[in-house]
Amino acid sequence: MAKKLKDSFEFLIKEYGFHLFSNIIEKEYCILKMKNDTTGISINYEIREDDIIVYLYRLIDGNIIEDTGPVSSEIPLNCIDLRYIVKFKKSESIDGIDMYKYSSYDDLIESIINDMKKYAEDVLNGSFDVFIKVDAMAKKRRLEWQNS
Predict the structure, then answer these.
(1) Over the stretch 90-112, which tens digit does the pLDDT of each residue have?
(2) pLDDT tens-digit profile of 44-64?
(3) Residue of 23, 27, 57 lying closest to 39 (CA atoms)
């Protein structure tokens, strides 16, 4: 799966100036991390979840900084799940975040890439205005998980 993800998301290198700087390949999951001058991306495949999740990061001093818990309303998130951005821009409810319906991983990857190009091009190019707008929704979900 790691090779399929690397090959599929190579457009980020060609079109947006990203480079792969970390890849963790284990039996149960793989994580590919890429960044350009402003934006980081973590592409996570988990066998157990049977899903691919893409996280977009606002780089801090050129680095991906993970949001540490607990989540606070005063501190903006550095990382937002692509699905929150897509749902926000489509004006859809954040409920039911598992939005991709697919018959194969190729279909899933194609859907993610299409959404990334259509709804997150601003973030890929270094504009994080949407992070401010999505921050409260993403925090609400994280707080629900944190408190459950």
Answers:
(1) 886 555 555 666 778 889 999 99
(2) 998 888 889 999 999 999 999
(3) 57
**DSSP states of 2-56:** HHHHHHHTTHHHHHH--EEEEEEE-SSEEEEEEE-SSEEEEEEEETTTTEEEEEE
Q: Where are the beta strands (DSSP E) in 47-128?
A: 51-58, 79-81
Q: Which of 86, 84, 38, 102 is nearest to 64 (CA)?
A: 38
14/37 Cα distance (integer angstroms):
14
Tokens of 105: 């991983």
Beta carbons of 43 and 2 less than 8 angstroms apart: no
Q: What angle do CA 44, 46, 51 make, to 5 degrees?
A: 85
Burial grade of 86 (CB within 10 A; 0-12, 13-18, 19 or more): buried
